[in-house]
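Example 3.2
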Amino acid sequence: MIKKQPVLLAPYIKTRFPYDKLKICRRCNHFTVLGEEKCPVCGKAALQQVEKRAASKLHRSLWGSRIIVLLLIAFGLFMSQSTMQTTSLAIGGTSLLALLWTMQRRSTPALLQMELEKLFRKEAYSLIAGLANDREMAISVFHSGNKTLAYEMLREIGALVHTDQLRIEQILLLQSFVLRKDMDLMLDPLLMDQFDPDLVEYIGELAKIRRDLLKENTFRYVLLHESHILRMEHGESILVNVTSAAIRLKRYTTLYPYLILRYARKLPKDRFLRLYRMVQSNAQASNGPLYEEVMAIYNEKYKFDEDFQIGKRSRD
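Structure, written as tokens:
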């Protein structure tokens, strides 16, 4: 059994868009998401946010359109043959310029998105190569013995690279750490379609210390691979812990009643008490199979238990 090490993970800084942390070098067009000060390829301090690069190009494009309009107005004024023509051209040209300026200002967010997409398409090869280089750097850090930094680097890359290989690497590192409730952990970005025992072990750990991280995607994953999980050494125990997490919210008891029904009998007393009170307060479930199973367990094991008779609520 691999000995787990206690670690201190840096908090993960969330951004509005996954590419917000992505930088591109002004000198060699190398991409990186690791927050470096200098370009890891050319060594120059020329990294800038990709949005800033796109905004700069957009700014030049917008000013190009304005300059063309100004030149047309100037040409019209130069060719005008009367004061009335000059006045009309000046008023019309000013109105056209104001209209163009207003339209550009209102459409700037959409135009910026288009410019970003154009940048990513144009530099697609460099982007892929840059993120692959970032991963190689993370693997190198791992081999040097700094597992914590390696995980933090892979976590940043994982915001943009959605491959099972990268997810597995993060999970394996997380499984080598002593996980605590106060750590900045994640689960949804690490879920895969295929069955992976290390992922299941990680889900089982989180089901004990961070139930709030288990959401609908996790429960669907567990249901899809339930038969494989049961074949694992501690598979049933993991499923019981997942069930304990599922009764955190009444909505989950409605969405996944059969998962809860299958493992309700194995729940610890405090979690079953919570489930019992949930189904008792849910009129819609009063005739369903989950309600019948819960009441059967109650009658067999807890009918005369004082905690089930008083109005005290269990806390999640």
